[in-house]
Amino acid sequence: MEYSKTLIFSLVICVFIINGIESITVQIQATPSEGILGQTSLQLKCSYTTVTEYVTGVNIQTKINGQFKNIATFNTPSVPFNATLTTDGNYLTNRVTLTNPTSSSTDSALIQFSQIACEDENEYMCEVAYAGSGGSTSASSGVETITVKGNPELPDSVPSYVPSAGIEEGNNVVFTCTGNVGKPQGKFRWVRYRYDSNDDTQETPYESETTTAVQMPGTCTFNGTSQLTLKMEQLDNNAVVRCQVVYQDVPQEKLYHQTQGINVYYSVRNVQVTKFPPIHHLLKEQDP
């Protein structure tokens, strides 16, 4: 007996067997396809539809060391066993719920995530084992990708600055800000607030200062560091300097720390001397 199989890859792969025109459709989908680190719900669903084939089992796979390996095994109603994680899937323990298909012809196997971790960012496939006119075989889905994001946090502390005291007009002061800027990597922006000669507040943003980031050990989020150098002026006396997180190009309204008013010493200007009372001649006090 001669068989002809056509594999169409995207998220769907169809297998057509000319003898009897048997077909099976398999697809995998993550909803949503982006997970947020922590207590976040995400569902990975392997669906299949058959005409005459009898499905005997389902495996969901992920790429490990460059190869797709089974992480969860599911059974159809004809096999009365619970779905289980494989050895390669043990990293999912206590973070997922597995649900078996309820039909051997049209149904789905589910991995329901209750907590997202960095290692969940990966490629996934689904393999369906079935019995057809040619005996036992399997069909696979295309590849689905899950990406993982991590929300940024407040900067670690109020921006530090050097020198921290005795600042004089004309001094260069270096401000430093550090903290978790999330995943994908965010950045810090700086804003200086000071009063002009009319006691109106001036706001000066500094958007182009570099944020250097490194991935934090044990996580996939980034710890950022940014510095701002300002040459202090008279108007910087009592100025406030703010460090704010920008994540995915959006300034995060509540994620900032700022300094207290900065003392800046400056020379006296426009000195005027007056005499009171305006007497042109002063009498020398007589000795008693």
From TrEMBL:
Coiled coil: none
Pfam families, alphabetized: C2-set_2
UniProt cross-references to InterPro entries, sorted A to Z: CD80_C2-set, Ig-like_dom, Ig-like_dom_sf, Ig-like_fold
Domain Ig-like: 155-245
Keywords: Disulfide bond, Signal
Signal peptide: 1-23
PANTHER family named in the record: IG-LIKE DOMAIN-CONTAINING PROTEIN
Name of protein: Ig-like domain-containing protein
Source species of the chain: Mytilus coruscus (Sea mussel)
Lineage summary: Eukaryota, Metazoa, Spiralia, Lophotrochozoa, Mollusca
